[in-house]
Protein 1
Amino acid sequence: MNIMIINGPNLDMLGMRQPEIYGKEDYDDLCYKIDEWANDYDISVDVRQSNYEGEIVEFLHEAFEDDFDGVIINPAAYTHYSYAIRDALLILNVPVVEVHLTDISKRDEFRRHSVISDICAKTIMGKGFEGYKEALEFFFNLL
Ligand code: DQA
């Protein structure tokens, strides 16, 4: 099973970016943990990060064209307003799991709405890095 994991803008700055909100572990720590969990679940992962909306759209086109079995996405701030990412997700015929490190339902007003949640198989929020583990577990349970 091949899963594409996409992380949006500013997630590459984890550890330095508002550590009181996002924690002290950095993006490499996240990627390391994802690899370990994926290994435990025997899932092959392609983990990507971009600060550009169009590049994220192109990652999703690749996920479609290369027949990935699912996508895990944390679109970061794009979550709240990117119809381009929503439209690209709608091209996929495989499950998509939305992950947020923080509980966006309890933060600023503008973060409370996700323009992708209604088209995702599952949304996991407020669990920090462990949210990605739960997302991988979702795909493992489909096997
Ligand atoms: C985030 C929440 C978003 O509101 C924010 O813009 C992010 C990260 C999260 O993982 O909690 O960059 O998606």
Note: The chain has a mean pLDDT of 98.
Protein 2
Amino acid sequence: MTRVLVINGPNLGRLGVREPDIYGSTTHDELAELCRATGMRLGLDVDVRQSDSEAELVAWLHEAADARTAVILNAGALTHYSYALRDALAQVPSPTVEVHLSNPAAREEFRHTSVIAGVVTGSISGFGINSYVLALHAVADRLAS
Ligand code: DQA
């Protein structure tokens, strides 16, 4: 089965308790299970990871770059300012999808900029946990074409 790495950045480990009106009540464990189950149906072996550390996120992207693994990334607030993540993501030769639970463009001004949007295959925002399901479908589609 083709591996896909789903990477969640800072504060996403607190899903379920963190601002549920914005991010929903699903926990990170439940989201991970949803991603794995969706992947199974699509013939993808989905590995879900979360870290609050930029260095760890960069290391995982290097791993994906070397193994040519497709990546679905919710970089959390790092989306808006981390050139290190952008540079790491730019090295991944396989399909890459930027995802967000909320729609950052409809929120505070500082969230309107994504420094990673220019180096991903595509972006999906605003559909809650379904953003991940849609991203997995997009990756499966890309890998099959
Ligand atoms: C987020 C949006 C970001 O602006 C925010 O910092 C997050 C979550 C989202 O999934 O909607 O941590 O990436």
Note: Strands lie at 2-8, 44-50, 70-74, 96-100, 122-125.
